[in-house]
Amino acid sequence: MSNIVAIVGRPNVGKSTLFNRLVEERKAIMHDESGVTRDRHYGQSEWNGNFFTVIDTGGYVVGSEDVFEKAIREQVEIAMEEASVILFMVDTHVGVNPLDEEFVKVLRRSRKPIYLVANKVENFEHRTNATEFYNLGIGELYCVSSQTGTGTGDLLDDVVKNFEEIGDEDPNAGLPKIAILGRPNVGKSSFLNILLGEERTIVSDISGTTRDSIDTHYKAYGQEFILTDTAGMRRKARVKENIEFYSVMRSLKALDDCDVCIVMIDATQKLESQDLTLIRLAADRYKGIVLIANKWDLVEKDSKTAHEYTLEMQQSLGSAAWVPIIFTSMLTKQRVFQSIEKAIEVYEARKQKISTSKLNNILLPDIKRTPPPVHRGKNINIKYITQLQGNAPLFAFFTNYPQHVHESYKRFLENKIREHFGFEGVPIRIIFKEK
Ligand code: GDP
Ligand code: GDP
């Protein structure tokens, strides 16, 4: 279990300023190259050798006047569920506000340690004013300025005392990172919402704001994994212009960060060039790939339809026909679990390491039966095969004429590797070396 610190409080008290300070000090925040500032509500921080995750709960919940109470409850619920420590932030420049009192009511139900943080304390007068927050009855008062950093050290000194362990530098290390990509309207958000169980936690429909989470840690169907989604982006009001451009940028970023990508398409439409481009980009980066053909409920079908669709899609996929295809319906929740299961299988397959003896014992006879074509009167001999270290499967074939092995023979070898060892959904790299 990693250490999690959640910041709650009404709007404008300075939650995101503190979040940024904590996270940025570790330089963990990633600024978007595109110049679009994206709200990252989860970040990693460190204090005196203790590693922890910071959540800015305010970023998830947008409230307007009449729904504040609901928004507050949601915020605190997120914090109470996820956090090991809660920072309840108030604004010294404003003083005790009725909404602060609403928070206190909900917070009282929490059994998690709560720290009352009076923000924007930058002079003696502020500090004196801050004493009024004792009336909230939360206990000790921590006066800080998120803007300058004053007081945050004292706060963190006490916060980290609650941690049972020093935490993980990267709590997500070792978990499969799965990205969900695809054109608009294919069903990505619906997929995520099913995974979330309910649209509860992060969604707030109030102003058309969609959850905007990148790298969400999921535990579903007994599996633990990190999902990066690009679905929420489109609806962000803030980014008005050139949505297409940014969504491509975002897809690329998500792709770079993931181990496996789920490319989702609409089964009622053909695999289009955009989809194939995504798959090619993923394959070029040696990422695992699962293709989901969604809205299967809309397809009129008999017992052969899935097979026919698969063959047709494999034809379009060409040299990437090793990508597994799953037919889903987010509407009827058909094969949602299998999709995740397949992505995790692909993740495992991508890590698979075949021993050198196994490779040689199994592949050399195939090669003997079907040797590389003679090149200008020279016999090309493959003597030895080994799998090299790498993030993705990489095989080295040692031969007398590495430069003369044809592309078509390389494909033959790839097919043989797949035939014997699986690697479904995993791009394979083959290189030839001189021996
Ligand atoms: P949030 O809505 O709670 O996330 O609040 P923000 O972090 O967006 O801050 C709201 C406003 O308060 C912004 O204008 C910040 O610049 C300002 N602010 C935040 N922290 C401080 C602080 O420590 N001192 C002062 N003077 N202003 C602050
Ligand atoms: P996104 O843009 O890829 O995130 O797609 P959404 O999840 O927002 O879905 C777009 C539309 O397709 C919505 O109206 C969904 O209700 C609908 N939809 C999603 N999945 C399915 C499905 O499996 N079957 C049907 N019939 N409709 C779906």
Automatic annotation (TrEMBL):
Entry keyword Lipid biosynthesis: no
Annotated positions binding GTP 2: 182-189, 229-233, 294-297
Molecular function (Gene Ontology), one example: GTP binding
Lineage top rank: taxon: Bacteria
GO biological process entries: ribosome biogenesis
The keyword GTP-binding is annotated on this UniProt entry: yes
Entry-linked NCBIfam families: GTPase_EngA, small_GTP
HAMAP family: GTPase_Der (MF_00195)
Quaternary state and interactors: Associates with the 50S ribosomal subunit.
Name of the molecule in the record: GTPase Der
Naturally occurring in which organism (per UniProt): Bernardetia litoralis (strain ATCC 23117 / DSM 6794 / NBRC 15988 / NCIMB 1366 / Fx l1 / Sio-4)
Species classification: Bacteria, Pseudomonadati, Bacteroidota, Cytophagia, Cytophagales
Gene name, Swiss-Prot/TrEMBL: der
